[in-house]
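Ops channel
N.P.: pipeline sanity check, posting one input/output pair.
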C-alpha cells in the first residue's frame, strides 16, 4: 500500500482526472472518505482495490530520413534516431521503423520494415534506373500502432551501365560506335556518355547522344 500516491478531491467532487500516467501500464486504485471531526481530519475505511490499464496511442514523433547512397536500381537511406520516451512514443518503446517509397506522383509502391528500432539504415532495391522516387518514414510502437509519415525526400536513381550495340567498327576511315540508352524510362533525363579509345588509336570525349562517329587519322592507316 505504500506505493500508492494520494490525491485529494475537494468540494465533494465525485469525479477526478488523473493524468501523466504511463501508457500500456496497469494501475491499482482505491477511494477513501475523510471528514473533519472538530478540528481533526478523520479518515474512513478504504474501498476495495480497483484496477485499470492505460492504453497506447499513436506515436507523435516523425523520423527524419536522408539519402546515403543511390545506384541505378537501389538506394540506401538512413534514419535519425527518434526519442523513445513515453511522451513521444505514446507507449513503452519503439518496435521498428517503416520506410515507404512512392512514384513521383506520390502513389505508394512498397513499404520496407526495419528488423528493430536499432536498425537505422534501409536498403530499397528493384528500382528503375533514371527514375525519381519519393521516400519517407514513420515510427511503429510496441503495440503495432503507427505514427504519421514524416517529411519526404525525393531520390533519383542513376543510369545503368551502358552496353555497346553490335560491331562498333565500319570500313574505311570512319568508325561508328553505338550503345543502348540507359534511360529508356525517361525521355527528359539527359545522360552524358564518356568514351575513350586506346591501343595506338587514342581518342576520348563525351556526348549526350547514343552513338559517336570516330575518324581514323591517315597516319594511322
Amino acid at each position: 500500500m505504500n506505493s500508492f500516491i494520494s490525491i485529494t478531491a475537494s468540494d465533494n467532487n465525485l469525479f477526478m482526472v488523473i493524468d501523466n500516467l504511463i501508457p500500456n501500464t496497469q494501475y491499482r486504485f482505491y477511494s477513501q472518505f475523510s471528514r473533519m471531526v472538530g478540528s481533526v481530519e478523520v479518515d474512513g475505511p478504504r474501498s476495495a482495490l480497483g484496477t485499470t490499464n492505460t492504453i497506447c496511442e499513436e506515436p507523435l514523433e516523425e523520423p527524419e530520413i536522408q539519402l546515403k547512397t543511390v545506384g541505378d536500381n537501389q538506394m540506401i537511406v538512413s534514419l535519425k534516431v527518434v526519442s523513445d520516451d513515453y511522451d513521444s512514443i505514446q507507449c513503452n518503446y519503439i518496435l521498428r521503423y517503416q520506410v515507404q517509397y512512392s512514384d513521383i506522383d506520390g502513389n505508394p509502391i512498397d513499404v520496407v520494415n526495419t528488423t528493430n528500432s536499432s536498425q537505422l539504415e534501409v536498403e530499397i532495391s528493384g528500382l528503375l534506373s533514371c527514375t525519381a522516387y519519393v521516400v519517407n518514414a514513420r515510427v511503429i510502437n510496441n503495440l503495432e500502432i503507427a505514427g504519421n509519415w514524416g517529411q519526404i525526400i525525393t531520390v533519383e536513381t542513376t543510369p545503368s551501365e551502358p552496353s555497346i550495340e553490335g560491331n562498333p567498327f565500319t570500313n574505311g576511315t570512319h568508325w561508328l560506335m553505338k550503345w543502348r540508352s540507359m534511360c529508356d524510362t525517361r525521355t527528359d533525363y539527359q545522360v552524358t556518355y564518356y568514351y575513350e579509345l586506346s591501343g595506338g588509336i587514342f581518342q576520348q570525349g563525351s556526348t549526350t547522344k547514343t552513338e559517336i562517329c570516330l575518324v581514323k587519322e591517315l597516319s594511322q592507316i
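N.P.: looks fine end to end. The helical segments are 86-89.
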